[in-house]
Amino acid sequence: MPATIHFTAAHHVIEIMTVGNTDLDNVWLEQEGFALQSITTDATAQIQPTPPRPHLTWIGDSITAGCWVHGRRPAQDYAADTNYAAQCSDHLACDSCRIAYSAAGIIRGGTGHVPAAPQFLTHLDQDTVWQPTATDLVVINLGVNDRQYFADDFESVLRSFLHQVQDCFAAPIMVMVPFAQVFAPVFRAVIHELPSITLIETADWALTYTDRLHPDQHGSDIAGRRLAQVLRPYI
């Protein structure tokens, strides 16, 4: 659906984000997602690319996608532009790419027929292969949706998935302990085996939540700021 945005006759930096898919949208099998088709300007406008900035790649679930930040209403309470990942990127003056699907985990598939992370990592949907782009840092926040599985099973798949991420990206990798502290001992044990990957502890961040899992706006503010402090030396 076309949208028109009016600007004053000055210099503006424009960042476009799409948000609004709900768990009912078949994003994996039926292409029920969002895509930017074109940008049209009037005759007096001039478009220039922004100067290159450091680049972050986020791999996560609905928390990283920005779901349930403002409340419990599907779509309208999502905030991809103000959740923790967006705020962290802004604090660090970084561009970012988010690979994040609602309810998905490392073992469990997500809503909208999305498969688990080892499968969705390199695809936009079942028909569209995605080649990971060059990035300066990879941040992973997954695992909370796998909480119904045994720790031994999660440990095995986590280890394999991290090796897969290493093969995809020639960049430092940071793994967050989920905000809910799901499988925290497993994350510590596996990352201890992989010295090239850094673990980010989150237990003392004192976040606030919409539903005990998804940070609300205040919690997102805290998480974005705390995470930026951790990542800054790596950017």
From TrEMBL:
<dbReference type="InterPro" id="IPR013830">
    <property type="entry name" value="SGNH_hydro"/>
</dbReference>
<feature type="domain" description="SGNH hydrolase-type esterase">
    <location>
        <begin position="59"/>
        <end position="193"/>
    </location>
</feature>
<dbReference type="Pfam" id="PF13472">
    <property type="entry name" value="Lipase_GDSL_2"/>
</dbReference>
<protein>
    <recommendedName>
        <fullName>SGNH hydrolase-type esterase domain-containing protein</fullName>
    </recommendedName>
</protein>
<dbReference type="InterPro" id="IPR036514">
    <property type="entry name" value="SGNH_hydro_sf"/>
</dbReference>
